[in-house]
Amino acid sequence: MTPMLRKGWFDRAVMAALVLLAALWMLPLLWVLALSFKPNELLMVRTDVFLAPPYTLANYADILQTSAVFRWLGNSALVAALQTLGVLVLSSLAGYGFARCEFPGRRWLFPLVLFGLAVPSQSVFIPLHRLFSDWGLQNTYAGLALPGLAAPFGVFLMTQYFKAVPIDLEEAAMLDNASRFKTFFKVVLPLTLPAQATLGIFTFLACWNDYLWPLVIATKPEMYTLTRGLASTQTNFAQSEGLGFLMAQAVFAGAPVLMIYLFFQKHLVTAVAGTGRS
Question: Pfam family example for this protein (predicted)?
Fold first, then answer.
């Protein structure tokens, strides 16, 4: 067997292994999707026949019959959009500053920002809640969105990506009398769109799926996000009496994020490859 033929068989074996692992990874998702179309009465008896009929749309109808569900959906979309926009703006400015600018304390400030990755968000819930309550931001969109603007991962990602951008482009723009801000907005920032898309996806996903912070800062039903609102509709015995309803809630809450991810997925590989060139 020639080396070329052996390489071909090896590539096929690796691809087959990856397909198998992907199928195993998708199986729980397919199980959740299938159970969301099953009658709750049947699921009280058994849950291992998720591919066989009967099927029903009653679980999704129960979600849509909740009068505030579209208000919660709008709250989640608005808060996630505001937080994503804020993170992109602040992380881009901070990342460019760390990558290109010299200022006092730069060498110790960047590791300090990265140290924020090691701090669990739950550990600062009490001081954050007291601070936002004193500011009168409880049950407000600002109170829901502002804590997520502190994004050490975003600063790290954008810093690495800005370092990968050739500095010759900036020098050429400055030779044409372009200011630092004009160079940043007109020359450098457009080259970081893959990283921006990646950071935007991660930020939007984290905010959309967040449950703990809306649980403590939003106490009025009209200010619930989708995760908080759907959880409030569950009974104490939802796992045994409404499994199909729970699965439908998971699908309903995850579908918008899945569509956004599929739309921007091509930027993920580009962004990761870009950070590796620094």
Answer: BPD_transp_1
Between CA 174 and CA 167 the distance in angstroms is: 11
What distance in Å separates the CA atoms of residue 229 and residue 239, rounded to the nearest whole number? Answer: 17
Contact 204, 151 (CB under 8 A): no
Closest CA to 31 of 48, 14, 17, 7: 48
Residues 6+ positions from 218 with CB-CB distance below 8 Å: 138, 139, 143, 144, 224, 225, 228
Q: What is the token pair recorded at 146?
A: 């502002």
In a domain, 24, yes or no: no
Is the pTM higher than 0.85? no
| C-alpha span between 83 and 202 (Å, rounded) | 11
Residue 194 DSSP class: H
> How far apart are the C-alpha atoms of 87 and 149, rounded to whole Å?
5
Q: pLDDT digits over 80-105, tens only?
A: 999 999 999 999 999 998 988 888 88
pLDDT for res 241: 54
In a domain, 28, yes or no: no
pLDDT tens-place string over residues 146-195 = 999 988 999 998 998 898 888 888 888 887 887 888 888 888 888 888 88
Q: Rounded CA gap, 158 and 90, in Å?
A: 10
Look up tokens 């921007």; give the residue.
264
Residue 31 is assigned to a structural domain of this protein: no
Cα dihedral value 5, 10, 16, 20, nearest 10: 170
Please tell me the total count of domains within the chain.
Answer: 1
With respect to residue 263, please indicate whether it lies within any of the assigned structural domains. Answer: yes
